[in-house]
Structures are given as C-alpha cells and as structure tokens.
Please model this.
Amino acid sequence: MIALSAVALVLLPLLAAWYARARLIAVTVEGTSMEPTYAEGDRVLVRRVRPGRVRRGDVVVLDNPFGRGTVSQWVIKRAAALPGDPVPRAEYPALAGVAEQRIPARRIVLRADNPHGGDSRTLGWVDSATVVGIVMGRLPRGGR
Model:
C-alpha cells in the first residue's frame, strides 16, 4: 500500500502539470480593443475549448481573422452571437447584406468591448473553428 501511495504522490502532480499545459494558455493582451475589460499588457488565462463550448458573452481567444499582415497570431474578443442566434444586422453593418436570418452553423459574431476596436461590425461573422479558448480571468501582474 505504501508503494502505491508513493507512486500516486509522484504521478498525480505530473499528470496535473501535463493537463494544465495541454489545456491552459497564458496570453498577453495587445491593443485596446477589449478595454475597459482588459488593457494592453494584461495577461489572461485561457482554457482551450472546442468551438461548441463557447457561450454568448464569453471572452474568447481565436486565430487572427483579420489576415496574415497583422502582428498578432491570436486576437481576444467577446462572443456576441452564436450559431442559431438572429443575425444582428443593426449593430453590425458588415452583416446587413447577408441573406440568412440566423447565424449559420460554425460561425460566430465577435464584439470588441471598446467601441473603436475591430470586430464583426466590419469583419462579419467568423469561422468558429478559429476559436482557441475561453478567457478564464486575468493573471496577476508581476515579474516574468
């Protein structure tokens, strides 16, 4: 019994570390599009998820939908509308001309918390497969 406990004491922390490394990411916010919620330089903890796990209102990190010419690999935005939700034409001019009445499967509408930030108002909806994860919260500031 003692040998099994010793093995568990060694394996459990290793397993926990592996899980955390595979599922959690620390991301540094760049830019002002999510102010006042997150400011440039804030570090956030992100839990990797499948796109179907995103809920309306979640702050998500996703592969940059704005193109390859931009600096950041990932962007941080709020999920404003999900598949099956009505298309929010009034708030999102880029969606004004779409024929669909509801957000199609595998699409997501993004919103920057800062009204001057880039989001689906100009980009339209985004492929939900680009979602990397959901922001769990801000990490404490401190040394590196």
